[in-house]
């Protein structure tokens, strides 16, 4: 049985990962959370891991005291995440933390020969070349957890000798599909957090409403499947039943379908190549009746367009737009900016910086910090 560590265990993906773990009595070696130490304590008592880590160090003493009656080793901060990532007891690291925090643990796990079940978008968006080069060098597998990338990965099984013409990334369109910029001028955070199909964390749900999430997935797909940007097409599919598809050189298209439930791709990433019963409802096409497909509105949703431009331009630009978006989204959630300003700030950061190469982890951090500083200063 694979020994699994989960970074981001109290978030949406982490919680669903532990549902899969319960279903199959998986061996959980480590759990890590950002700041929800009480929930992390509950998980630790249920799964009895060797390690737990609380990233926000101000909660370290609370967590350590709460688990003093156990043999669980309590860690904290980035050092704690990396200790888990390098642990000899871990076979596969499920990385579902939010933000740039996830990059260094991913690189650490790869350096230590650990397979990765990857749900942290920023790892590939900001450091795609570094991560994929390191994984190839170490012979490490990166199993995508995002439903769209998992779908593509599944469609490619048994087709390694066949040439890809393009991939089709599906997008739900978020809660504001069909809206104009004028319609979106006074959107509230509560409205943006009301996703029609998926239950996700706040940051990713806002990203879905701006279509930034699809832009980040566009960049991830380029790295995961070694494609050019011109080989990636985005199609709005409101029902979220076809999770994505691959078109081969003969123009045959193979797609992966299922109910919109993240436990399907999570389980596939963890248990690959095994398929077994999953704790979700089966898909009934007749219950849906009709599946629709439309082009995305690049004019209204600036974030999607700028992400595509960023990966085409290359270098640090994907890192810059990602960092700018993280700051802008938090400003929106805090009520400091309006909805449309998210895209405006991301675009402004993209246009502000000159081209710079990404050759190391330090290059990523430098570009990330510069973009964050730019957006924060833009509002002063």
Strand order of the largest sheet: 4-3-2-1-5-6-7
Structural class: alpha/beta
Stretches where pLDDT is under 50 for at least 5 consecutive residues are: none
Span between N and C termini?
Answer: 53 Å
How large is the radius of gyration? Answer: 20 Å
Query: What coarse outline follows from CA principal-axis ratios?
Result: globular
The main sheet comes to: 7 strands, parallel
Assembly state: single chain
Beta-strand portion reads 5-15%
What is the chain-wise order of helices and strands? EHEHEHEHEHEHEHEHHHEEEHHHHHH
How many strands appear in the DSSP assignment?
Answer: 11
| Number of distinct helices | 16
Helix percentage: 40-55%
Mean pLDDT: 95
Short description:
This protein is α/β, with parallel strands linked by helices and 380 residues long. It has helices spanning 12-24, 37-47, 60-66, 77-86, 103-111, 121-138, 147-156, 189-192, 202-210, 212-224, 263-271, 285-288, 302-313, 317-333, 339-352, 361-378; strands at residues 3-7, 27-33, 51-54, 73-76, 92-95, 115-118, 142-144, 164-171, 232-236, 242-248, 253-257. Helix 10 runs parallel beside helix 13 (302-313) and helix 14 packs across helix 16.
Account of the protein in words:
The protein is of the alpha/beta class and 380 residues long. Helix content is 47%, strand content 15%. It has 16 helices and eleven strands. The termini are far apart.
């Amino acid at each position: 049985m694979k020994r699994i560590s989960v970074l981001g265990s109290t978030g949406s993906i982490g919680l669903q990962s532990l549902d899969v773990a319960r279903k199959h009595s998986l061996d959980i070696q480590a759990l890590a959370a950002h700041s929800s130490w009480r929930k992390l304590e509950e998980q630790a008592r249920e799964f009895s891991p060797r390690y737990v880590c609380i990233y926000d160090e101000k909660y370290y003493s609370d967590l350590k005291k709460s688990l003093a009656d156990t043999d669980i080793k309590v860690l904290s901060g980035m050092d704690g995440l990396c200790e888990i990532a390098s642990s000899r007891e871990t076979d596969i690291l499920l990385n579902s933390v939010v933000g740039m925090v996830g990059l260094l643990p991913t690189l650490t796990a790869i350096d230590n020969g650990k397979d990765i079940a990857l749900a942290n978008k920023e790892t590939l968006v900001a450091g795609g070349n570094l991560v994929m080069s390191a994984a190839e060098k170490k012979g490490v597998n990166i199993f995508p957890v995002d439903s769209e990338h998992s779908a593509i990965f599944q469609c490619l099984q048994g087709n390694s000798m066949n040439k890809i013409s393009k991939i089709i990334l599906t997008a739900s369109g978020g809660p504001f599909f069909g809206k104009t910029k004028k319609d979106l001028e006074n959107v509230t955070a509560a409205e943006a957090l009301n996703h029609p199909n998926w239950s996700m964390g706040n940051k990713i749900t806002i990203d879905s409403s701006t279509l930034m999430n699809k832009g980040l997935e566009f960049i991830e797909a380029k790295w995961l499947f070694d494609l050019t940007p011109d080989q990636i097409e985005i199609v709005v599919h409101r029902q979220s039943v076809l999770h994505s598809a691959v078109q081969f050189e003969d123009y045959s298209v193979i797609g992966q379908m299922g109910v919109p439930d993240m436990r399907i791709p999570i389980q596939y990433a963890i248990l690959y190549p095994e398929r077994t019963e999953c704790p979700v409802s089966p898909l009934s096409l007749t219950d849906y009746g009709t599946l629709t497909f439309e082009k995305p509105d690049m004019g209204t949703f600036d974030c999607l367009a700028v992400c595509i431009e960023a990966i085409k331009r290359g270098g640090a630009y994907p890192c810059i737009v990602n960092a700018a978006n993280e700051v802008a989204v938090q400003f929106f959630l805090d009520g400091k900016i309006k909805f449309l300003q998210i895209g405006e700030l991301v675009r402004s950061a993209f246009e502000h910086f000159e081209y710079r190469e990404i050759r190391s982890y330090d290059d990523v951090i430098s570009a990330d910090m510069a973009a964050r500083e730019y957006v924060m200063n833009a509002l002063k």
